[in-house]
């Protein structure tokens, strides 16, 4: 029960922020297999989304470092303080909020599903932020700069400005269940 309350508290912090003081500028860099991204992210949920029972949406600063197999995601408040840090490996994921002890999860998918009500495709997100479909799953091109993968419509039209928009498709394609916007820091 404590893990559920902690997860909901993190989600509340993440989604209650309206703006974010950006962290140190770090453009997408690929060093070997590791990638580094930072900027702001916003998640909005449809009222009838299963996730909407837990949250209404919001934004936070972020820093993402690693690979789909192992990495660190830091969420930053509008005042620039660390709200939470998530670490993962191929076997487990850990969530730390403030001075609390880390909470252990079986996987990053399980951690995100607990926080958001459904798992975000973290493995795919690394490639999406790099402006391309994930090689680990099939995708369908729907426009020259948009594709559908893993139930998400990924719009890359504004990637030159550092903006990625991914919409979780629902029964009605014109009304997504969730919309994730990621604005990457640029020099």
TrEMBL record:
User: Where does the record say this protein resides?
Assistant: Cell outer membrane
The residue ranges crossing the membrane are none
Q: What is its main location?
A: membrane
Record keywords? Cell outer membrane, Chaperone, Lipoprotein, Membrane, Palmitate, Protein transport, Signal, Transport
Signal sequence, renumbered to the chain: 1-21
Protein's membrane topology: Lipid-anchor
InterPro entries for the chain: LolA/LolB/LppX, OM_lipoprot_LolB
**What Pfam families has UniProt attached to this entry?**
LolB
**Its family?**
Belongs to the LolB family.
- Describe its assembly: Monomer.
Protein name, per record: Outer-membrane lipoprotein LolB
Give the source species: Roseateles rivi
